Amino acid sequence: MGILSLFKKQYTPKPIFEALGTDMHCHLIPRVDDGSKCIEESIECLNTLKAVGFKKVIITPHFQHPRFNNDEDDIRQRYEEVKRQAAEAGVEIEIAGIGGEYRIDSGFKNRLENPRFLKVGGKYVLVEFSLHQQMMGVDEMIFDMQMNGYEVILAHPERYPYMNVQGDRMEQLKNQGVFFQINALSLGGFYGDEARTKAYEMLERGWVEFMGTDTHNTMYAKALVDLSNNRKVAKVLEKYEFMNKEL
């Protein structure tokens, strides 16, 4: 054990997410993406989400070509198994639904031709961009989704280095009717100072509709416990009207 770990403060979870109600973005179906590796890890994360105040959770595995070529029917079956094992383990948080986090990538246009989206809350399609560079034709694909009746949420816009609050890109997407979901851990600096700064700037402009934890594993869960003791984040949750409570 290092000297630093001897003096690192150990936080206990505080239920600061009670007002938010639902975590609508997490990766807790084991072995389908870069999230949970086993049901025991999923259960530990679910218990932590409950401890920091969440009442419900919607699980959103990655759909990404070719890295995570998940099938919606298979994901539904795995989701039901997570629900069953969580109930047997005495997990108290409500596992309230299955969605997907769909990467707009080279395979997304084909997906639009035969859509089988797992929708968050039965209404919204959660999409993400590349964390490195945005591909061409994104706006057209989002427009096609909207014309087909889908409500689109963009996951963690604060994490895309090519999108800035002061630039045109975020405002353009807002004007297009895209909902924004920030990651709770961005507010605590989990993804770096740039993502934290952009997340707060987006909140100040009223550009954020949803907040999710994007929990992948127990490292994220431990960071959420620390975040639950952050007074600045607690104030954001007290005053900002997120749409999570509608899910």
Structure report:
This protein is an alpha/beta fold and 247 residues long. The protein has one domain (18-238): Metal-dependent hydrolases (TIM Barrel), CATH 3.20.20.140. 36% of the residues lie in helices and 14% in strands. It has 9 helices and 9 strands. The chain has helices at 3-7, 39-51, 72-88, 108-113, 138-147, 168-175, 193-204, 218-227, 231-239, and strands spanning 22-23, 56-59, 62-63, 94-98, 101-103, 124-128, 151-155, 179-183, 210-212. Helix 2 (39-51) runs parallel beside helix 8.
Q: Could you spell the SSE succession in H and E letters?
A: HEHEEHEEHEHEHEHEHH
Report the CATH superfamily.
Metal-dependent hydrolases
CATH topology: TIM Barrel
Number of strands: 9
How far from one another are the termini?
A: 43 Å
Gyration radius from CA atoms, angstroms: 18 Å
Instruction: Identify the CATH class.
Output: Alpha Beta
Could you name the ranges where pLDDT drops below 50 across 5 or more consecutive residues? Answer: none
Approximately what portion of the residues adopt beta-strand conformation? 5-15%
User: What level of helicity do the residues show?
Assistant: 25-40%
The CATH architecture category equals: Alpha-Beta Barrel
Number of helices: 9
Q: Which term fits the overall shape?
A: globular
Main sheet specs = 6 strands, parallel
Sheet with the most strands: spatial strand order: 3-5-6-7-8-9
